[in-house]
Fold this protein.
Amino acid sequence: MGRSPTACQILKETGVGNALNPSVSLAECFESLLKALFRNYRNEYVYKNAIANKILLGRHSLRTSFMLTEFRVGDCKADVVVLNGSSHVYEIKSKFDGLTRLGAQVSAYRKAFEYTSVITSADQLKMIRNEVDERVGLMILTDRNQFSTVREPRSCIAEIDPHVVFDSLRQSEFARIISERYGDLPDVPNTQLYKACRKLFCQVPIAEIYPAFVNILRMRGDSMSLRSFIESVPSSLKAMSLACRLSWQERGLFVDLLETSAREALLYS
């Protein structure tokens, strides 16, 4: 088994490595690491993982919902998007994040998602409230690792731009939407397929085509193997399990690795 220099450095800096009992599993080690991050360095991953546990898995079901991370919308990347019949984008602003791009980010998200919320810390709330209008939801990640809703988001379905929505799809996804909508793909050369499909997509009223967009994105998680993997990892790794692109064989190996000794997996060759 190979040694992980990065993991060793993290264990050393957090102090978790010194406290590791030889019998502690790698899964338990990750749980301890996340607790240390929550106490001492509440970064973006801490927020993403809280969304995965408390919103995606706590309020919804993997059979009907999915969560995407770092989803590109125009020139922006949405931190987290939860799809459950509607679409809700969560922009994370921890105390380590600047707010200079927040206005542009919110404007971009409204062109693709029905609801937009900003999740932040209590000491950032006042500044963020001044940066966004009342249609944007506001949430706080509390010291008890719970979400407190300061303001519910308002639907911005009327602002959604079908061109932006279409451009965020993969070719296989927009091809499926067009085929289901029109019965077949346009009879054009492959080099012209994108343009032809985009024209057909954008001529449909957004209220009619948007549910297909939400559903096709949700289907990125429509795999029993992926759902099983997400459910099998410890709570500290839920966001990672949703974001990583492992084959089903790699997922199995990783789950097995989590059961091994943390010292064996991380500290020794």
Remarks:
- The two ends are 6 Å apart (CA to CA).
- The first strand starts at residue 66 and ends at 73.
